[in-house]
Amino acid sequence: MKHYDAIIIGFGKGGKTLAGELAKHEKKVALIEKSNQMYGGTCINEGCIPSKSLIVQADKKEYEEAIEQKEKLINKLRQKNYDKLAQKELIDIIDGTARFIDNHTVEIDHQEQISADYIFINTGSKSIIPPIQGIQEAKHIYTSASMMKETQLPQHLAIIGGGYIGLEFASMYARYGSQVTVFEFNERLVGREDEDVALEIQHILENQGVQFKFSSRVQEVSNQNEKVVVQYSQNDVGYIDHFDAVLLATGRAANTDDLGLENTDVKVDQRGQVIVNEYLQTDVPHIYAMGDVKGGLQFTYISLDDYRIVKDYLFGKQERTVNNRGHIPYSVFISPPFSRVGLSEQEALQQGYEIKVAKIPTASIPRANVDGKPEGLLKAIVDKNTDQILGCVLLCERSEEMINFVQLAMNLHLKYQDIASHIFTHPSMSEALNDLFNAVQ
Questions:
Q1: β-bridge mates for residue 2, sequence order
Q2: Pairing state between β 112-121 and 2-9
Q3: What angle do CA 211, 53, 67 make, to 5 degrees?
């Protein structure tokens, strides 16, 4: 049996970056990936990179041309990721499905067995398939990953789930020309956001042609010729509609089902997520979990920060943990993008803060009008007693860049007046932060 210093299961952001770091420290590494189409992980191949490629082309190119451009991009990035590690003598890239035999041993494709002093689980997550009658048998049912491989634009697209992934795809496909209908179980969109923000998102997407079916439950799907027949209830009334395709956007689950963790002392929670401590160690100290597989925020940049925590634990001062990451922003790439960091207004009130709130329309920003992108709003929540920024919501063009500045200010414990008086370039979207924080009352 071949023995390594480290086995990494999964070629995602955290795993691939850690592999390079371990090799730099003269460690022999086995990097196992079950598919040669997944070098680089979900983000590059099935997630943020292909979806953002399609999103940015939605107002510029025809759908088939955009799909072709997307494929060229991910093939290039996939090969680049492979080459970067394959050239390192201390790294063996192994194509195959890994399964634990015990706490130190992994079997590949039920054949070869290898062992290691350290093992890192970086297997990511997978789309949840909801228990809808006919969902496994019907044709033209897609996950976000498989949907982006389709070269033909669906004339009428149903999206089951009005969460962040569903909204990104709704905005994107509507702008390519699809008639999009979103089925949302709840009474409104994105329940973790403030209602004024959720309504503005709904208004923007409806202006793009998206239709929403709130308080709805899809009960059965089937096929009639090449159409998908969707039977659903809305406010306890039954309906039937026909679509060219159905996209499942009902969340993601940790990819642990086939890992053989039952053969180890590694514990998972009720959702199948690997349980880790603040240093990302499992109940077996030499087995770590990184990225989506451990639950929590499912972002590529969190997986990268997981690598930093592990690196610091193995080779540094053991100061970085999951508890001192600071404030973590996120963006949803509808058009215009929606970005947030910190608490919402409703969350701040629920936590007992006395707050001051500022809100301005995107239409008041000179650069937004120059770009012809006046829809949206900007909102800030401030602690009334300390003037510390508690949260910020940016629903405007370039918000995915602007939010990082606010995050840095919050992590540095700056007061809202520091942003209100900061000098920004003009005309830029960032200078809107002057107006927003000057409007705090």
A1: 114
A2: parallel
A3: 80
Of the residues 3, 203, 242, 426, which is catalytic? 426
CB 125 within 8 A of CB 253: yes
User: Which one, of 390, 406, 409, lies nearest residue 398 by Cα?
Assistant: 406
pLDDT for the residue numbered 38: 87
pLDDT digits (tens, 9 = 90+) for 114-138: 999 999 999 999 999 999 999 999 9
What's 261's DSSP letter?
G
Q: Which amino acid is at 111?
A: Q
pLDDT digit string, tens, across residues 298-317? 899 999 999 999 999 999 99
Decide if 118 contacts 7 (C-beta within 8 A). yes
Give the single-character DSSP code of 104: S
- Sheet containing 141-142: which strands, arranged edge to edge? 141-142, 245-248, 156-160, 179-183, 211-213
Band of residue 46 on the pLDDT scale cut at 50, 70, 90:
confident
- Answer yes or no: pTM beyond 0.85: yes
441, burial (CB in 10 Å: exposed 0-12, middle 13-18, buried 19+): exposed
Would you call 292 helix, strand, or coil by DSSP?
A: helix
Tell the residue number behind the tokens 């997981």, with chain if given. Answer: 306
- The Cβ of residue 426 has, within 10 Å, a number of other Cβ atoms equal to 10
Check: CB of residue 271 under 8 Å from CB of residue 295: yes
- ∠ CA(343), CA(348), CA(354), 5° rounding? 135
Q: What is the CA radius of gyration of the chain?
A: 23
pLDDT on residue 229? 98
Cα–Cα dist 299/73, whole Å? 20
Catalytic, 203? Answer no
